[in-house]
Amino acid sequence: FLVLLPTGAAACVELKRFEEAITWCDKGLAINKNNRILLSLRLQSVSEVGDKSMEEKDPISHEPGSASSGDFKKVIDLYNQGEEAIEYHNLYLKKAQEVGDKHGEGNAYGSLGNAYHRLGDFKKAIEYHNLHLKIAKEVGDKHGEGVAYGNLGNPYHSLGDFKKAIEYPNLHLKIAKEVGDKNGEGNAYGSLGNAYFSLGDFKKAIEYHNLILKIDKEVGDKHGEGGAYCNLGNAYDRLGDFKKAIEYHNLHLKIAKEVGDKHGEGGAYGNLGNAYHSLGDFKKAIEYHNLHLKIAKEVGDKHGEGNAYGSLGNAYLSLGAFKKAIEYHNLHLKIAKEVGDKHGEGATYGNLGNTYRRLGDFKKAKEYHDLHLKIAKEVGDKHGEGNAFGNLGNAFFSLGAFKKAIEYHNLHLIIAKEVGDKHGEGNAYGSLGNAYFSLGDFKKAIGYHNLHLKIAKEVGDKHGEGGAYGNLGNAYDRLGDFKKAIEYQNLHLKIAKEVGDKHGEGNAYGNLGNAYRRLGDFKKAIEYHNLDLKIAKEVGDKSSEAIAYCSLGLVFELQGRLPKAVEHYQASINLFNSLRVLLISKDEWKVNFRNQHQVAYTGLWRVLLEQGNVDEALFVAEKGRAQALTDLMESSFCGGTSHHKGEDEDCAVLKNVPPNTVFQAVDKANVYLWVGSEGKQVQLRQSKLKDFVSENSGSSLSFESFMLGVYTQLGVLSNVRCENGSLDALREGRSKVDKKTKEAKPEPHIQQDGCLSTLYDIVMKPVADLIEGDELLIIPDGPLWIAPYAALKDGNSKYLCESFTIRVAPSLASLRLIADCPDDYHKSSDALLVGDPWVSEVTNSEGEKVLEQLEYAKKEVEMIGNILNITPITGRQATKREVLKRLSSVSLVHFAAHGCMVTGEIALTPDPHRISTVPTAEDYILTIGDVLNAQLRAKLVVLSCCHSGRGEIKAEGVIGIARAFMGAGARSIVASLWAIDDEANLEFMKYFYQQLAGGKPASESLNLAMKSLRESDKFCDIKHWAPYLLIGDDVTLDFIAKDRENLNMKSHE
Which residue positions does the secretion signal occupy (predicted)? Predict the structure, then answer.
């Protein structure tokens, strides 16, 4: 019975029935006068009733260590959190039902509803609150009826049903006024304020919170007064009035300290952190969130601790400290799962998704946003569902999939309209405007940004209003209306200053600098970019600081102030490199981060060339090339220790350039060509695309469109008689490269006859006089990675491969790493030949079989096996487990299987010992991570998968299968640029391996195999013999020749 008494007392306190709570406490204290829970509850109840005579007679109020309101909060929390609370409330319910206490039964239902609400089970909470409501009506308990209505509003609010969240507190308010319940009236105002806040109507939210503040002051409820200040602070924060928000949060903090409310104090610190975050002062935000975290841990507030971790994650994300952001969000996620907070769990998935999006890990970002969406749908959280759709839209936007982004933002918009979320509706319009802006539809973008602006003004969202002005300015800038652009950016700036939004102020300065630069007013452009830089430094935003330096570099370059340009571009690169270090070993993060900031590297080497610093410009271009791949190779070859220890080492890379090396660097429609050989001075030549091709109307000249023209004229974009060895069928859509191929603008008209002659004239003719001997090494850049160099035709109609053996490499540093690798690092014997793995069991998400068996792939490896006298593994034997077991012990690896040209994944036979009936990706997909862990030691990897030499073109280089194996430790790769006719590929591989088996180097074997096809009647067309390329080092597989010699000797004995 004593166990039930504190439960009943706590329930009465929660329902504001303080006199009844005192009765419950007195009954319990008569049995055990030292029960601390009952003593604390009684003290609080006496305090709330305000009966001074009772308080004076109350011995516990004068005892040392009597409970403060902070201690009382702990007591209440004991009964309000987790499964333990539900157990207590169920015991109380059972007892009330046994004795026929309808009043107590109703209270128990209400307490159970609140407990389930805190656990995130909103539907069950509604069920119990309805039971409470039913009993209250039956027994004519108007007060209880009002409380039940008020409680019903809370789970509907959490579910995102804001209409119902307003309807129920209004019913509560009506009853509270009827019965003269000032506390209830205040609670109803608070709930209505919270509902309007969630709807994005912050002005109305402020109106209601001011009403509750008035009541709390009247009745002397300091705790409630503090809560009202808290809610007012949050509303002003969302309105963009951050200074006022801080003012209210400080008032809340003051009261919390006065009354000893540690929970409230912690919450105030957290809200102050959020306000300073909104102001762009991330360091101060972190300081306050740490104070919140400290208190939450002290008082055992797991929910507050989780929120503090989440807020710290967001602050570190804004500072560009991605690793730390992920750490904190994972701590929040752990707590949310521990306490069963589904809503918090979903929100944390959303935050993790946003962090991974900023890192460029879009695959992981999508995974997390999908988890958020799943939870939101499970618990019926429409608001969370809308946010998840919006975040998915942002992820696809960052991927460059703007049409898909629009699809998701429209889903967000539909939900926002359904639930009446004006703030969400405005944000959706803004996101749609950004997507149409990126598609080049600036007029449509302006239309959506104006809708965002209209809503922001309606609800008084100053922050949103400023952002809309900034976006409108950017759109008018792209339309060439610079005056209008400046007008809108100034409106954004004005609002940012008014509300103290330092981050927005910096953005506005940066955009104004860009607009004045395009107008040719460089003096004003420099002035604004410096203001942007000043703010970025003040708030510690390294990423914005780097962008500001880069923008200043560009203006100084245009002014002809080249030393200043170099200084600022270099400062930008230094900052980007310091941020890059934080990305640790995540390859994909580094690749995307480098891609986002390519302009700084390009700007620096371009200005150095203008100054005549040819060697230094090459050094900078090389430093920015294949950075992430070099990191991967260092981890493979050097065990994770950086090979380059300083500038002297880096300079050595340039001094020890292999003979006849042509280093390319593309800047828009220009290509710069450095030619170097060991011990010789580096020479520079340049080509301009406009000298060789003419622009089509409506399309700008670029190497991307030019290379599309080359591929079109070669006929390699059309279907060929080739088994589909791509993994695209397992993915949502085709790769980005293929999408670009389909959606690209018409290729430019080529003035000279023959696209291959034109390409030769652009990239080889300018340096032809500098090339000596018969070996050629090319370090391609950007779109020139996919050039079929072997087929380029010189002025005498001679193919380049007839004059040279050709190989390509991602960077000079990668070649140096290979050259410096210990002699015994790569294996010198044995081969692994993998062909036509059994993939008939593999299905897509709909359960449909999507991968075909590759008959020619099986023939291919069996033929190679005969040449090399090695048994291949095919069909059911070609399991992932078997391949990984052999990878580290062979000198040659040959794959003839389904592959993904972007991720570097290869499909193998699913593990027969797997747990699931339907194979998961882990059961059969060979990832680059798997290859790295297997410690690849092959001298040569041959990738006979469709277009294995292609992939996604980024600043890093081509991201695909070939790069993946080079990063994993392969010395040399043979790959193809496009899909090849099956019979032609079979013939090529036969000739190639026959030469390789004869002891010839890979480059010469490749050349001779291409020559054999070129001179044949059936496969003489360029599309059959030209796509093959050798990447990395030139290797000879001595073991093959020795094995054949031994075999021949045995046959003669």
Answer: none
- Write down the H helix ranges in 772-879: 812-819, 855-868
Name the CA dihedral angle for 760, 958, 1032, 577, rounded to a multiple of 10 degrees: 120
Structure tokens at 487: 């007008």
Strand partners, 837: 875
Q: In angstroms, rounded to a whole number, what is the distance separating the alpha carbons of residues 106 and 146?
A: 12
Can you tell me the distance from the alpha carbon of 5 to that of 463, in angstroms, rounded to the nearest whole number?
50
HSE-CB at 1039 with a 13 A cutoff on CA atoms is 15
The total number of residues shown for the chain amounts to 1053
Distance (Å, rounded) from C-alpha 813 to C-alpha 629?
A: 10
Nearest to 281 by CA among 21, 578, 501: 501
User: Which pLDDT band holds residue 580 (cuts at 50, 70, 90)?
Assistant: low
Query: Could you tell me which of 767, 596, 750 has the C-alpha nearest to residue 671?
Result: 767
Highest mean predicted confidence (pLDDT) among 149-163, 276-290, 587-601, 661-675: 661-675
Q: How many other C-beta atoms are found inside a 10 Å radius of the C-beta of residue 859?
A: 18
**In the predicted model, is pLDDT for residue 79 greater than 50?**
no
Rounded to an integer, what distance in angstroms lies between the CA atom of residue 736 and that of residue 645? 36
| Position 636 pLDDT exceeds 70 | no
Query: Could you write out the DSSP letters of every residue in 919-966?
Result: PPHHHHEE-HHHHHHHT---SEEEE-STTTT--EEETTEEESHHHHHH
Tokens of 326: 């992920």
Beta-strand pair 940-943/906-907: unpaired
Would you call 1028 helix, strand, or coil by DSSP? strand
What letter would DSSP give residue 843?
B
Q: What is the pLDDT of residue 300?
A: 85
Q: How much is the pLDDT for 996?
A: 95
Distance in angstroms (rounded) separating the CA atoms of residues 336 and 347? 10
- Mean predicted lDDT score pLDDT of the chain: 83
Q: Is 8 helix (H, G, I), strand (E, B) or coil?
A: helix
Q: What is the 3-state secondary structure (H, E, C) of 878-923?
A: CEHHHHHHHHCCCCEEEEECCECCCCCCEECECCCCCCCCCCCHHH
Residue with tokens 């902070």: 70
DSSP 3-state of 67: coil
3-state secondary structure (DSSP) of residue 849: strand
- b or e along 685-724 (b: 16 or more beta carbons within 10 Å of the residue's beta carbon)? bebebeebbeeeeeeebbbbbbbbbbbbbbebeeebebbe
* 458-479 residues labelled b (16+ CB within 10 A) or e (exposed): ebbbbbbbbbbbbbbbbbbbee
CB distance 225 to 213 below 8 Å: yes
SS3 category, 424: helix
Asked if 554 and 323 count as a contact pair (C-beta separation under 8 A), the reply is no
Beta strand ranges found along 418-485 (DSSP E): none
**pLDDT for 917:** 77
Beta strands in 700-802 (DSSP E): 749-750, 775-779
C-alpha to C-alpha distance for 462 and 774, rounded to whole angstroms: 67
User: Minimal CA–CA distance to 963: which of 914, 1032, 899?
Assistant: 1032
pTM of the model: 0.71
Please count the other Cβ atoms lying within 10 Å of the Cβ belonging to residue 745. Answer: 13
Element (H, E) at 504: helix 502-519
CB burial string 956-981: b at 16+ within 10 A, e below: bbbbbbbbbbbbbbbbbbbbbbbbbb
pLDDT tens-digit map of 489-530:
999 999 988 877 788 899 999 999 999 999 999 999 999 999
**Nearest-CA neighbor of 898 among 955, 856, 940?**
856
Name which of 185, 169, 81 is nearest 129 in CA terms. 169
Placement of tokens 């007064």 in the chain: 225
